[in-house]
Protein: Large ribosomal subunit protein uL23
Organism: Methylomusa anaerophila
Amino acid sequence: MEISRDVLIRPLITEKTTSLMQDNKYTFIVPLTANKVEIRQAVEQIFKVKVLAVNTIRVMGKNKRMGKTQGKRPDYKKAIVKLAPGERIEFFEGV
């Protein structure tokens, strides 16, 4: 089983995460069950970079209404990955 492709769902690109890229930090959406070790291994394996630190944040989904019907957005987990000095992920460049 190729573990790295299952751990990183997609990159998260917002104004805040774009400013974090100046500090060599990149943000990904990961499964709720993923831990820091799995995230580190996945990033190092896919992008061939050296990871210094991984921080994770669990984001609770918001309750939303559309008229009478009520729903909830799904919960998700963010991973902020700090790379070694001089390392870059080309996937994010030019965004």
Observations:
- The beta strands are 10-11, 25-30, 51-59, 63-66, 69-72, 76-83.
- Helices lie at 3-7, 15-20, 36-47.
- The chain has three helices and six strands.
- The chain has a mean pLDDT of 91.
